[in-house]
Amino acid sequence: MSETHGGDIIKDWTPLAPDEKDAETTSGVTTTYWQDVRRRLWRNKLAVTSLLVIILILLASVFGPGLTGKTYDAQQLALRNMPPRIEIQTAADGTNFFIHPDLKVFLANADGLVTEELAPISAKLKDKVFVYKYNGGTYYLNFAAGIKFEDENHQPLPQKKIVWNKNYVLGTDSIGRDMLTRLLYGGRISLLVAFVVTICTLLIGVLYGGVAGYYGGNIDIVLMRVVEVLMSIPSTIYIILLMVYFGQGIYNILIAMALTAWLGMSRLVRGQVLSLKEQEFVLAAKTAGVSPIRIILSHLLPNSIGPIIVSATLSIPGAIATEAFMSYIGLGVRPPMPSWGILSNDGIGAIRSSPYQILLPSIAISLTMFAFNFLGDGLRDALDPRLKD
Amino acid sequence: MLTYIAKRFVMMLVTMFIIITATFFLMHAIPGGPFSFDRALPPRVEAALEAKYHLDKPLMQQYLDYLNGILHFDFGPSYIYFGQTVNQMIADGWPASAKLGIASTLLILVFGVPMGIIAALNRNRTPDRVTMVISTIGVVIPSFVLATFLLYFFSVKLEWLPTFGVETWQGYILPSVCLAVGPICGIARLARSSMLDTLNQDYMRTAESKGLSRGRIIFAHGLRNSLIPVTTSLGVTFAALLTGTFVIEKIYAVPGLGRYFVYSITNRDYTAVMALTIVSSAVVLVAVFIIDILYVLIDPRIKLYDQ
Lengths: 389, 307
Known about the structure:
- The complex is a heterodimer of chains A (389) and B (307).
- With 389 residues, chain A is an alpha+beta fold.
- In chain A, 55% of the residues lie in helices and 12% in strands.
- Chain B contains 12 helices and no strands.
- The radius of gyration of chain B is 24 Å and the shape is flat.
- The chains are: A alpha+beta (389), B mainly alpha (307).
């Protein structure tokens, strides 16, 4: 209620701070389409986690095989089927033994470094007992009911503990090769196949579909009839035939898969191009005398890049599965080169005695497939939020 | 309608012909004949073998003979099992594969379709979310990885079910579940989105405002319209399962067509590879043909002559 004098008003008045100047305007910061996409993708926790997992798997399979200090084909036959977790039994005199489920006795140290196999000096097969002598002590491996390792008084050894296999962290396979190295190297092969096949799919599919969609008419009819016929052949059969013809090998599986994988992509690109080519900006480009190839490459494709990226991302897990499948039935890469499919195939026979040999590659395949699928789904939602549901 | 059927039929025959031709020439282009063993055969034995299997004739003649044989459903002799015909081997293998295929298809019907419908009716609520998560996992995981995990838990850890073989009915459980999980999840997703589409249609609102009961709306109006794409997908899946699957039959030692296919690939039994390729693509092609025709019959909205 105080009187306002001119001086007071002037005293109360302060200039607006720069950031307050636009307080009345309603628009926010303008963002481009790709900024929006990135923001939407970052908000999708599952997709971001998947992206991180994929980066980790990629790094591991690119650099991992060189860091393990072993090669994928070096065998140590004495140490075959070594599990990742081993039980060390310590005798009274401090000697450490590892009893393998295949009825073998190994010397080890307390940390889990298995050194050499101990040969039995005699066997009483009637009682189901192997007799061992080491460092003056006599030990019995009794396998009448379960596997029991006993000292000279037929008492169990005093100390037991389960430790990680020091030498082979993930164990060895059936001919004594390091599982970790093979798993990492197998990832390299599986991912290489997947990426190369996807790139080929992109190149062939985009070109083929782009030409069919852009030119239309008879060219379109002929090109798409070819695709239709090829698509009606079940693709596994088609790949199997090609592989029987080519023979095993990594380049052959690349060619066989690339030859079959582009069909879907070419249909997708054709559809996109068909719906875009009637729009005004294409007409404008045509009027300006831009060549058809330029129109396809710099006008039509950039506008349909979203679905193409999504389809490519989702085709990677498909390619991994196909390669694994082909290797699994013996038509993939040529052993001893590992791939996840080869590892699964090698491991399935030992599912009872050494389940880790089949579980490890299965887990690797599943993890990669999930990651790529969730990333692909996330990308689709981010690129076109209307498609959700 | 007849023109449409005729057109589809010709299209199917052309595709079949292309498959047969491609298979034949690919198999004959492989270096080394079926009788190139580690140790070279005496030339006279080799000549006799080639004469017996008509491999001494010109390639075109062999091709025409082969086509003629296929017209009479005769796929020729096996190169590996002397004295056995490929027809016999297909007849031996098919029952196990077919049983497995039928069992899996039943599982798909019983679980896949209801899962999708329930998810759609409870859109964005817990049943929907659970179904979607499960079906994502099921679609993504390759069948042989799933087979491994199931084998490990049910046969090795719990010892409830046999590890391999189909001598008893329990032997069919794991392989048919492995084969069914992927399609169940695929069908569930398809049924869900198709049902959601239908639920948004105007006639559904009409049915509701007429005062029909919820059950009648869903079953008489919703299901009938939303199951059309599901039928298509199910048909193709059934056809593909019927002719056997490679990996699952190999893992579970099912004496079916798929395992036999893999076996003939590794043993280079080319006549068998050709025959199995042709038979399994033919079954799928015929199924697609039948479905295409049924599709037009059950859904009059589809315009025939556009295609």
